[in-house]
Amino acid sequence: MYCVRTVTPDVFLLGASDRRLSLFENVFPVPRGVSYNAYLVLDEKTVLVDTVDSAVGAHFYENLEHALQGRPLDYVIINHMEPDHCSTLGAVFRCYPDAKVVASAKAISMIGQFFDADVTERCMPVKEGDTLCTGRHTFAFAMAPMVHWPEVMVTYDTTDKLLFSADAFGTFGALNGNIFADEVNFQSEWLPDARRYYTNIVGKYGPQVQTLLKKAAALDIQYLCPLHGPIWRKDIGWFVEKYQHWSSYTPEDRTVAIFCGSIYGNTENAAEILAARLADKGVRDVRLYDVSHTHVSELVSEAFRCSHLVFASATYNGEIYTPMDNFLRDLKSHGLRNRTAALIENGTWAAVSGKQMAELLGTMKDITVLEGTVSLKSSVKEAQRQSLEALADTLAADVLAHGE
Ligand code: FEO
Predict the structure, then answer these.
(1) How far is ligand 1, taken at its centre, from the CA of residue 369, in Å?
(2) Residues contacting ligand 1 via CB (< 6 Å)
(3) Minimal-distance CA residue to ligand 1 atom 3
(4) Are residues 204 and 270 in the same domain?
(5) Which pLDDT value is given to residue 393?
(6) Is pLDDT above 80 for 403?
(7) 349 shares a domain with 368
(8) What are the pLDDT digits (tens) for 163-208?
(9) What pLDDT, on the 0 to 100 scale, is given for residue 371?
(10) Distance from residue 34's CA to the centre of ligand 1 (Å)
(11) Distance 77 CA to ligand 1 centre (A)
């Protein structure tokens, strides 16, 4: 049965949430589910803005048919061609053969890559600044390449000031009846997933997100309508500010996150001692993560949030312990920069993980690795306890020097 939601008197939210999906993109756990948003504008012409993942296709088709109320579909605006938004596009092409397809030239070329349907005749390529008038509404298109694919654009309704922002400003998490961010406890319950979504999906493309933010700053936005998660109509500036931090690789919080890769618990013991000493010295909200047990997408998200990062790793097969190696390479892939890092290594016969972690971090931009890697030979002894104390002094002084 249909479940169409009203955004404004003539803009409707179609789509649905998937609460059964284990791994978004077959890699990111989504224990809170995920929503796939599509929008329908009922103007003199009817306009569908994006489609949805096939997982919620049945609901989407019902919603679309119901919301159209027997009217034809005149336009399909495609902001993003990734299959979580377009796997139902082929069926829309078949069901609404007269609908014009409005998209960037790159998106149009991708249609042919994903579908056999030849839609050349009904495609309307648009470029930066082009507009489409559908009666009362006029839509303006702005290109947003690499937020998160190269073909991405965003669509601004110049009439009612809605920005259909594609993946930007999206988040993991199913919609549970409430569709607006001001109707949920976003800061306490959604922000960690919003951060994890941003950093893991778009984190690498900070400069491109900054470009989009500059374009958005010139607009009067009353509604921010992403393809995942709740719609923003209040406090939009607060969420934009989060995007400013994330996309400029600026830490949100001055604190220490300790990431620990420990086989038998001895490296973890060192990490525990460091965490305790940091707390004693006044560092608030210290975090200690076991990289073998916390999903790497959460580790990446926390590395984007925190100003100071400690990597504590056992040596394994003469290399960095595998889960830590995987995490560090993921951080590099996501372009993290502008952080202060410190290292703890361990090895029973040859501790080399510190040197190798420093080399890996050295390939990333603007990562300052503090001198004085704490080196363990199997377990923490008095000499290492003193080294951890000294490291805690250095880190705490740096964290607290700049204050909040
Ligand atoms: Fe939600 Fe890049 O797709």
Answers:
(1) 34
(2) 80, 82, 84-85, 148-149, 167, 227-228
(3) 82
(4) no
(5) 97
(6) no
(7) yes
(8) 999 999 999 999 999 999 999 999 999 999 999 999 999 999 999 9
(9) 93
(10) 11
(11) 15
| Residue pair 321/313 in contact by the 8 Å Cβ criterion | yes
Atom of ligand 1 nearest to the CA of 166: 1
Cβ 287 vs Cβ 178: under 8 Å: no
Closest CA to 299 of 257, 341, 339: 257
Expressed in angstroms and rounded, the spacing between residue 81 Cα and the centre of ligand 1 is 8
Of ligand 1's listed atoms, the one at least distance from the Cα of 228 is 1
- Residue that terminates a domain, selected from 247, 263, 278: 247
Residues 220 and 264 in one domain: no
Residue-wise pLDDT for 234-258, tens only, equals 999 999 999 999 999 999 999 999 9
Q: Is the pTM of this model over 0.85?
A: yes
- Based on the domain organization, do 20 and 133 belong to the same domain? yes
pLDDT band at 369 (very low <50, low <70, confident <90, very high): very high
How does residue 119 score in pLDDT terms, banded at 50, 70 and 90? Answer: confident
Domain of 325, CATH number, reads 3.40.50.360
Which ligand 1 atom minimizes the distance to the CA of 152?
A: 2
CA of 85 to the centre of ligand 1 (A): 7
How is residue 205 written in tokens?
A: 């493309």
**Continuous segment of H or E residues that includes residue 143:** strand 138-143
* Complete DSSP assignment for 171-231: -SB---S--BGGGTTIIIIIHHHHHHHIIIIIGGGHHHHHHHHHHHHTS--SEEE-SSSPB
Number of domains in the chain: 2
Task: State what percent of residues in the chain have pLDDT above 90.
Answer: 98
Structural domain boundaries enclosing 47: 5-247
User: Which residue is listed with tokens 């880190």?
Assistant: 395
Picking from 70, 106, 71, 102, the residue whose alpha carbon sits closest to that of residue 89 is 102
